[in-house]
Amino acid sequence: MPKAVSTLSSTSAPREGGGNTTQDHLRLIAEMTREFTASHDYKTIAQTSLERITKYMSAEAASLFLVGDTGDTLACSACYGPVDITGLRISAKSGIVGRAVQTRQGTMVRDVRDDADFGAGVDAKTGFQTRSLLVAPLSIGHDCLGAIEIINRIGGDGLFNQDDLVLLETLARAAALAINNFRLTAKIVQQEREQHELELAAEIQRDLLPRPSSRDFPIHGINIPARSVSGDFFDIMPLPDGRIWFNVGDVSGKGMNAALLMAKTSSLFRCLAKSAEHPGQLLNAINSELCETNSRGMFVTMVGGLFDPATGRLVLTNAGHEPPLHFDLRTERFNPIPADGPPLGIAHGIAGPDGYPVTEIDLAGGMLYVFTDGLTEATTFGGGMLGIDGARALIRDHAEESPDLRLKSISGAVKLPGQSLRDDLTLLVVEDMSMGRPAFMPPPRADLMITDGEILRIRVPARPDRLKLIRAAVEQAAKFCGAPEAWTFDMTMAVDEACQNIIRHAYGGRHDAGDIVVDFVRRNDVLEVDLMDFAEPVDPTKIKSRDLSEIRPGGLGVHLIKSVCDDARFMPPPPGIGNLFKLTKRLPTNIK
Amino acid sequence: MSYEIREVSGAAIVALTGDVDLQTSPAVRQKLLESLEKHKRIVVDLSGVHYIDSSGVASLVEAFQVSRKKGASFSLASVSTAAMRVLSLARLDKVFTIHASVETALASQG
Question: Dihedral, CA atoms, A245, A250, A255, A258, nearest 10 degrees?
């Protein structure tokens, strides 16, 4: 096909010694494969390789075509010979080269005039005359990246032979691997560049958050992004009259889009707060601004407030956000402040004619906690979601600590070192110090356990010879709950079967592949058993009960588990855990 | 887990005792299949089984299937409460021939 102006042997070297031996072939393959793997410069290596092959085969020209993005065309990415056709596009569906790409088969055409697939269009354009051809596909696995063609054997009988084709196919396979590697490397470089940009964005974003407050300042906040950039934010902005604006927001979605909307919303808050009288008016104004430009269905939930440290009173507006908690130290109770307005950025005037409503709260020496669902929906090490009760328990547990330490302790309870969160987490506390720093004496610890009703937790190697120990643990835990024998037997069997699945499937039956953690928790009249492993996550859809009409060994465990438990399912595993399988079984009603 | 195999009038009585679980069921499977090589009648005595799991049940099913192919007789006898619970949950209590005791098993096969 390609290449122009048939000139002569400056481009082609005669076959060494009048014909290449197998040894020569092997040497060439070895050398070129080495060059392919050693080089990082695709252009140069493609060019020099084509030159070498052409000369070695005593041919006139060679070109390398790569399949375009749509798969319909082939573009010449390198060539050697009298005419430069780099950039030339031909069909990937027709022609002799197209045929090699479609069939993944090398082809030898001794005289192109005898091949119906030969298209003379390129020759017509370039003036080159193609007589004979060798084409080999650049195959890698099931993919074909393109093809290499060698044109016009010079000297001898002027014909390519079967040996030439086999050699070209071998070289094409090595070349395909090399091209694939070049592409992967380029992709990694691109990813690294994007990651770097994301890190820069994260740095800018961190700068948008307020600096840590001094210990005697009444408002403190913390933000922990799940990825490098966050869709959560908070802000604290003191006014000259002593009052303090604050907010906590959560942008729907994650990643760069969310981060940009976060930056915009937080700037709007800062800017518009200077002229707003109360948070209802402020959030109304932010909503209007966001609706002017926001698109793609993204929105922001926000709690905005204005606190007066002199009186301990604050005015609050909640736009579709997780209800903040007022921790009243006089009653030791939590009062949630519900969402009374819709999220920001959805529609103009969505909050009604009066705009976003406000709630006035007298902290009365207490505290207000505002947080994102990254806290309440975080997974605890025990496996469950922290939930609002868990959040309250944590707040009580750490009530005596200084505000900064307290925020770190609370967020640290759901973020394990070295693990990333599932969602961004933001937590802010407003403390009424008008009567001195809030003092809180926590009630006895027993009432405060997050995992109220934890009975037993064991961690054992995932091995068949430990199943007996696990069964003994279930029996003891059930006995501890006062369960009768038959109930205990069923639960023991369910746990045993679930552990077998971990050993056999999650860990693939490998010896000493990892551990199993079995956690027994009683919640009222229910015994929950969490089974955790450290294996690769399994696909629960692939685990099914067997069809009982079909009698054969194996596949019975899941059926047994489901027969005796009220519920058995995979749960989102907490950080550091591979799989979490939760068994739930109601205890008989007559036990205490 | 332990097992004992005795021969009574040409039949092999395989008595299992203890826990038949993932750890011990491979041995049970092997013993049952070996017995089927030598005998035309097998009675598995499950009176001493405190616990049997799905892998143990699978061994019994496999032996049962092999016996059918060979035209041998395979039955369970004196099944403990625990083993019966698992067999009935697996709905295999109707599949196996189950006898109240080894004696009745032998008599019926007699």
Answer: -70
> CA angle, corner A62, sides to A57 and A67, nearest 5?
130
- Give the chain B residue nearest A463 (alpha carbons): B23
Answer whether A493 touches B (CB < 8 Å). Answer: yes
CATH topology of domain A16-184: Beta-Lactamase (3.30.450)
Q: How many CB atoms lie within 10 A of CB A482?
A: 12
Per residue of chain A (592 residues), give pLDDT as tens: 444 333 333 333 445 444 677 888 888 888 888 887 777 778 888 888 899 889 888 899 999 999 988 889 999 999 999 889 989 999 988 899 999 999 999 999 988 888 888 887 888 888 888 989 999 999 988 889 999 999 999 877 788 888 889 999 998 988 888 888 888 888 888 888 888 887 888 888 788 888 888 878 899 999 888 777 778 889 999 998 999 999 999 888 767 777 888 888 999 999 999 889 999 999 999 999 988 876 567 888 999 999 999 999 999 999 988 899 999 877 778 888 877 788 888 888 877 777 899 999 999 888 999 998 888 888 776 667 788 888 888 888 888 788 888 898 888 887 665 666 777 889 999 998 877 655 554 443 333 333 357 888 999 999 999 999 999 999 999 988 888 999 999 999 999 999 999 998 889 888 778 999 999 998 878 899 999 998 888 776 666 554 444 444 446 888 899 889 988 888 888 878 888 999 999 888 765 4
In chain A, domain spans: 16-184, 209-448, 454-586
CB-based contact A560 B65, cutoff 8 Å: no
Tell me: domain A454-586, CATH 3.30.565.10, correct? yes
Q: Which of 3.40.1190.10, 3.30.70.270, 3.40.50.150, 3.60.40.10 would CATH assign to domain A209-448?
A: 3.60.40.10
Phi, psi angle pair for A226, to nearest 5°? -75, -35
Nearest CA in chain A to B18: A468
The full set of domain ranges for chain B reads 2-109
Q: Comparing C-alpha atoms, which of A12, A10, A2 is closest to residue A126?
A: A2
CATH (residue range B2-109): 3.30.750.24
The alpha-carbon gap from B55 to the nearest alpha carbon of chain A, in Å, equals 7
Checking ipTM against 0.90, whether it exceeds it is no
Please name the amino acid found at residue A189: V
